[in-house]
Amino acid sequence: MRYSVAMSGNTEAVMRDHLLREDGQEDVLIATYVFSTGVERTTAVIRSVILPRDGERHVHGNASFTSAYVLRAAHEARLAGHGLVLLHSHPGGRGWQRLSRTDWETESDYERVARSATEMPMLGMTIGGEDVAWSARFWFDRAEPTWAESVRSVSPTLAVTWNDELRPVPRITGAQARTVSSWGDRAQGTIARLRVLVVGGGSVGLDVAQRLAATGLITVGVMDYDAVEERNLDRMVGATRLDAALGRAKVEVAARLMRSAATADAFEVRRHEVSITDPVGVSIALDYDVIFSCVDRPWPRAVLNGIAYADLVPVIDGGIALTTFPDGRMRNGIWRTHTLTPGRSCMACLGQLVAGDVSLDKLGLLEDPEYIEGANREAPSHQNVAALSASVSASLLAQFVSLVAHPGSRGVPGPLHYVLSTHTLLHADASCGPYCAYKNATGAGDRRTRIAEHRNDWREKVEARRTVRHPVRLRILSGIEHLLHRYTNRIQ
Predict the structure, then answer these.
(1) Whole-number Å distance between alpha carbons of 160 and 153
(2) Residue 46, SS3 per DSSP
(3) Within a 13 Å sphere around the CA of 433, how many CA atoms are in the beta-carbon half?
(4) How many CB atoms lie under 10 A from the CB of residue 14?
(5) C-alpha span between 358 and 451 (Å, rounded)
């Protein structure tokens, strides 16, 4: 199991402003957290900050807590059902901070108090004042802390502090020279270590996944339970007629193309033939640091919208809609992209997600011609072409660069809409209202509203594909292709 810590940008600002004093002395602080549990990674999501009252901590060079402060905070944490976080600062520290003997003894002594009050492990955190870097460790017992792999602050800019011992800086390869020249070694070291998930392996998702691999990321996952069909070949650039004839899983095709594009020394592809609308898919998604939403249905988009806020995993969402005249001529094309993080609007408040459509999607009615006609609804648009899907993937990737490389120090923009017929780029200025359910669930973690449901339809589809017996000639071609790709990717 891997461990990490996440917090919203606003929460981080409150803690940072308290801990990094103008007089240069150390300070201490207490906060609370909840768990966000993935398959391989458990994240402590910071929920609230409990500021000290007069006399509740001592600042004398090396700052210290008082028992009254810890007991009061532990009581508040227990009432809320949260775990306890003890934080302190190293004003001259840089990078991931380790524990001094005094720090170790303090946190170890308070571990029992925190556990007995909250029945959750205590979390210790340190901030280094020289570069505002965070570090964290979980106290499952008094003997030895379990160190987190990373601490991320999520806002329109994503800032991650890495534990280099658990997630080492990858070597910069010769193939990455132009990439590194664009944002420097330090940014590349952060970006390359991000675990990024692409949900949807169609035309847009396939392009995004390959370009992430080419950028030097060492772990990229693709989630899709569908297979390649002949009708996909005019948009899924890189998929072949053999892929369609074999009905290959889209994640398998994506993995092959990503390996060919990868520039990292030890590139890891993760293939997930599951649905994001299933709790299994949600748990997998929580193992990642950033998610690309390349899906076009309301239900999966609602699930991803929830994860972005409840679990503080930024979601970069986009799509395209093409319309035609009755005689078949092209009328217009609109594509849009936006990044879902605290500080930016959710899909529901943008009007890109209608709550009632989620229920209809679960029932399969949005694809039912009889229902659409009877309800006087407009049928969903499925038109797309390779020449325009590239524009969507480019805009999604530009959002990613803004999120992680921070050009101009501004982070991701508000929602962007491009109207093809007028060649107009529109900047939406919508914001989440005070009663937005998604915004108000920020940092909820495992207490998020349950939108995903166990279903067997996607499982049956995957299982049926795996049991198909293809003709001998296709199996031979597949074997030859596999050997060719295997030896081609070994070329150094």
Answers:
(1) 6
(2) strand
(3) 6
(4) 17
(5) 9
* Residues 20, 89: Cα–Cα separation, whole Å: 7
> Residue 475: in which H helix or E strand, if any?
helix 472-488
Q: What is the largest CA-CA distance in the chain?
A: 80
pLDDT truncated to tens, each residue of the chain (492 aa)?
999 999 999 999 999 999 999 999 999 999 999 999 999 999 999 999 999 999 999 998 788 999 999 999 999 999 999 999 999 999 999 999 999 999 999 999 999 999 999 999 999 999 999 999 999 999 998 889 999 999 999 999 999 999 999 999 999 999 999 999 999 999 999 999 999 999 999 999 999 999 999 999 999 999 999 999 999 988 899 999 999 999 999 999 999 999 999 999 999 999 999 999 999 999 999 999 999 999 989 999 999 999 999 999 999 999 998 888 999 899 999 999 999 999 999 999 988 888 889 999 898 887 777 766 676 666 666 667 888 999 999 999 999 999 999 998 889 998 999 999 999 999 887 788 888 999 999 999 999 989 999 999 999 999 999 888 888 888 888 888 878 877 777 665
CA atoms of 355 and 341, how far apart (whole Å): 19
pTM of the predicted protein model: 0.95
Q: Using only the alpha carbons of the chain, give its radius of gyration.
A: 24
Task: Calculate the alpha carbon distances from 132 to 11, 126, 136, 190 in Å.
Answer: 14, 10, 13, 15
Contact criterion met (CB below 8 Å) for 420 and 334: yes
Q: Which domains does the chain have, with CATH numbers?
A: 2-162 (3.40.140.10), 174-463 (3.40.50.720)
Tokens encoding 245 = 């004839």
Of 88, 186, 94, give the one whose Cα is nearest residue 131.
Answer: 94
Q: How far apart (Å, rounded) are the C-alpha atoms in residues 188 and 171?
A: 10
Q: What is the DSSP string of 206-267?
A: HHHHHHHHHHT-SEEEEE---B--GGGTTTSBTB-HHHHHHT-BHHHHHHHHHHHH--STT-
Token duo for residue 246 = 């074999």
And the tokens for 433? Answer: 């209202």
Cα→Cα distances 74→135, 142, 245, 353, 446, Å: 21, 17, 61, 39, 20
Rounded Cα distance between 280 and 199, Å, is: 14
* Size of the chain, expressed as the number of residues it contains: 492
Confirm if 40 and 2 have CB atoms less than 8 A apart: yes
The C-alpha atoms of residue 158 and residue 18 are separated, in whole angstroms, by 21
